[in-house]
Write a structure and sequence with these properties.
Radius of gyration: 15 Å
Number of helices: 5
Structural class: alpha+beta
Number of strands: 8
Largest sheet: 8 strands, mixed
Shape: globular
Helix content: 25-40%
Distance between the termini: 21 Å
Order of helices and strands: EHHEHEEHEHEEE
Length: about 160
Amino acid sequence: MLMISALSPNLAAVERGYIVLKGRQAGLLAALPMPGDQLDIAKSKVSIRDLGALAAACGHEFALFTLKGRRLLVRGDTAGILLTEQELRLLAGLGYRFSGHSHPRVNGPGDQLSVNASGSDRAVLQSIFSKQRRSVIIDSGGNRNVFEIQPGSDTLIFPEG
């Protein structure tokens, strides 16, 4: 496992309620008011970093799937992404890539375990999105994990500070 330190926006301040989302990110959250909501959007209008900010603002997971110049942003809840195996297989069959998803930090600031890929995360990558080798998890504090199908090959990226 490789660990890298990188600069990140102050998502911890959003997570603690010191600042609120503004502009584009606030618009994304407003477009997805309920768990299970989905938004088809231009690829240039949403990023993996946005997933961390959205998770920090509301404590829910968000997933991002990419197909050419479009992205599908999906709001989950506190426990996960609300897509069935059939829905995930449909996305994969249409050619979408599982770009990444967010994990809210359950143990608050300093919780670096929140970016660990679960067995389910790896299984989705291996059995459903089998044409890709890796995906990304970002937590509500900006920590990232570029995870692969097999454990032990992940790259953890933590914000400086």
